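Q: What residues go here?
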């Protein structure tokens, strides 16, 4: 598992110039920055959650389906959610709430996942879980790690590709309670994640050297 120390090492060795550019963007754009803190930069974009192969096979064999909750959109075994949030210039912090959600259905029951919130510093994603005819419950839903091959950054954009999102124990319990079983066991990938976002500071309008 990639540790927080390894994340820092990756950034220091491969993205130092980008981080300096982002820090300059924050300064020129008026982003507040406490002494010794990495600036939080606003961004907007979207994230696509595609069922991991084992999860997709389970949904097929158990006659379950995955749908989008607007304004999210669905295609094949993927759901794309738009969102706006913040990301720190060192890529180790920030929060990105996503709009819409996803719905799993099977055997006349459903499980809605909405208020999806990516917590960059914690390497986790929380969500409101609603089982059939029950109240929403916010749970720690997915966990992930980062590596140099899954994240790329420029002074204007950040892109994530093929990041495995592992289902947590509360998430697996919610699936079992709502649908009778979980698509994957806790700790196994439920989705792979692709995301793209643009930093929305005024610095985006400045031509980079």
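A:
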């Amino acid at each position: 598992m990639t540790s927080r120390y390894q994340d820092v090492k990756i950034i220091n060795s491969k993205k130092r110039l980008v981080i300096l550019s982002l820090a300059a963007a924050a300064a020129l754009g008026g982003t507040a920055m406490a002494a010794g803190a990495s600036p939080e930069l606003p961004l907007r974009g979207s994230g696509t959650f595609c069922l991991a192969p084992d999860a997709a096979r389970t949904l097929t064999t158990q006659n379950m389906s995955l749908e989008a909750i607007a304004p999210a959109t669905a295609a094949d075994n993927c759901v794309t959610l738009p969102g706006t949030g913040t990301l720190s210039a060192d890529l180790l912090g920030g929060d990105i709430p996503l709009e819409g959600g996803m719905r799993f259905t099977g055997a006349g029951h459903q499980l809605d996942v909405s208020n999806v919130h990516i917590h960059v510093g914690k390497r986790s994603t929380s969500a409101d879980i609603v089982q059939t005819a029950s109240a929403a419950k916010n749970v720690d839903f997915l966990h992930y790690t980062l590596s140099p091959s899954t994240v790329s950054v420029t002074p204007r954009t950040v892109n994530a590709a093929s990041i495995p999102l592992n289902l947590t124990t509360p998430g697996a319990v919610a699936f079992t309670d709502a649908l009778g079983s979980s698509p994957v066991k806790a700790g196994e990938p439920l989705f792979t994640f692709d995301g793209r976002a643009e930093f929305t500071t005024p610095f985006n309008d400045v031509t980079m050297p």
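A: Context that may help when evaluating the design: Residues 8-35, 204-209 have pLDDT under 50 and may be disordered. DSSP finds four helices and twelve strands in the chain.
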